[in-house]
Amino acid sequence: MNIAVIGAGVVGVATAWELAADGHEVTLYDRHPTAGEEASFATGALTGPGWNAAWLPAQANWSGPWGSAKGGLHLQRLPRLGEWTWLWRWAKCAKGRANTPQHQALQRLALYSAEHTHDLDRALELDHDASDGLLVLLRTPQEADSTQTTIERLREIGVAAQALTAEQARQQEPALNPETPIHAAISIANAGAANCREWTLLMKTRAQKLGARLALGTLVSRLEPLAGGAWRVHTPKSSPPFSDHDAVVVCTGASAPTLLRPLGLKLPTQTITAHSVSAAIREPLDAPLSAVLDPARQASIARLGQRIRVSGGAALGAKPGAAPDAAALKQLYKTLMDWFPGAARFGGPQGSVQEWRGSYAATHDGLPLIGGTRLPGLWINLGHGAAGWTLAAGSARLLADELRGATPALDAATYAPLRQGL
Predict the structure, then answer these.
(1) Whole-prediction pTM value?
(2) How many angstroms separate the CA atoms of 398 and 406, rounded?
């Protein structure tokens, strides 16, 4: 088939590669001149299952614009009418998330995606910053007690989650600040950290070698259905200003409603923003060996080659294009100084600090929307929330298998857009 993939973030690029590998003629569109320019640019870097699990009850909380943004979901303004409905459904799912079928399905997809990513790394000889292992840090006995159900559910699907004492945690990550208290930790061998944008750019090149056409720097303004399930992709600044395809796959994340709403498809997603701070490592012995997660602060710290990245936070209602939020950045700096105070170089001639804010589309139950819609020939792969990098390779393979009529490795109906009436 002749297929258009719209969106060259990590999900779109992975999708383009899988479709090209299956023998389709693929055109990859993006409004930016290079791949990975939006949500994939400086994401939190965590990969594999478990990091986005329901570790603490506080993760299901939300705070208004008058409150602090230490955990859960922070509202930067009062929600609008449609946002209240999504927020109510999100809170309901989040409170019992560890025991829900949706949570199990999300972690199964994360585990499958991690395995598929490793397979791609080996087969395609992808050389990018990556490290194995994730340590979930628990500060108090109460935090440790609340994780037991989540550990059991992760183990049920094959995730190697192991409870550690504070001493064992410090042995695994010897650079942890001895003055910051730890009661216990959880080690997840199936998870780790990797550079999302670096992987995206490498996979873009691999897709191009398979014959995928790159239409980067090309704005898609409208999708028009044609007879027989074909689609016309309108690109007004190009010559000619449109291109016809047998099918279209939309992977534009937070920008997807602009394309899909005129077609009568109302996405059940909201745009959430998060932040990250990346800096050069000052002293390798003072930096993490891989990745750690502080669920109480809803923040992660990962080592990416010669750089360290701390990321986290989740906010609803931020103004599009706004600068990074000072309060959110302050929280990230505090978390980094709590756990690895001597790790990063913030000043001097060799200092290089990047403060970043990104936006992603999130469903209320955390499950992405992967597969065909009720409109023939129109497919979507979006709504991955903060786990776009984690789920990209697996989501792309599931969609490619479904599109060619093969049996996917996981139950496609669990993630199908049709479950939300799309």
Answers:
(1) 0.95
(2) 9
How far is the C-alpha of 41 from the C-alpha of 30, rounded, in Å? Answer: 14
Around Cβ 98, how many Cβ atoms within 10 Å? 22
- Is 350's pLDDT higher than 80? no
Q: What are phi and psi of 303, to 5 degrees?
A: -95, 125
> Would you give the DSSP letter of residue 237?
T
Name the pLDDT band for 331 (thresholds 50, 70, 90): very high
Place of tokens 């969609």: 399
**Is the Cβ–Cβ distance between 22 and 84 less than 8 Å?**
no
Check whether 415 has a pLDDT greater than 70. Answer: yes
Distances (CA, A) of 48 to 52, 77, 130, 138, 362: 9, 33, 12, 20, 18
Cβ atoms within 10 A of the Cβ of 217, count?
A: 13
Task: State the pLDDT at residue 349.
Answer: 65
Q: Which two structure tokens, joined as six digits, stand for 56?
A: 């603490």
Beta bridge partners of 3: 26, 247
Residue 245 has pLDDT above 60, yes or no: yes
Can you spell out the DSSP letters for 362-403? EETTS--EEEE-SSTTEEEEE-BGGGHHHHHHHHHHHHHHHH
Return the C-alpha torsion angle 226, 230, 234, 235, nearest 10.
-160
Please report the pLDDT score of residue 346 as a whole number.
85
Locate tokens 């209602």: which residue?
317
Q: How many CB atoms lie within 10 A of CB 81?
A: 6
The secondary structure of 121-182 as a DSSP string is HHHHT----EEEEEEEEE-SHHHHHTTHHHHHHHHHTT--EEEEEHHHHHHHSTTS-TTS--
Cβ atoms 366, 341 nearer than 8 A: no
Over residues 38-93, the pLDDT tens digits come to: 999 999 899 999 999 989 888 888 887 776 656 688 898 888 888 999 998 888 88
Q: What length is written for the chain?
A: 422
* pLDDT at position 230 over 70: yes
> Which helix (H) or strand (E) covers residue 86, if one does?
helix 81-95
In 3D space, the residue among 165, 409, 195 whose CA is nearest the CA of residue 309 turns out to be 195
Whole-number average pLDDT of the chain: 93
Tokens 């065909």 correspond to 372
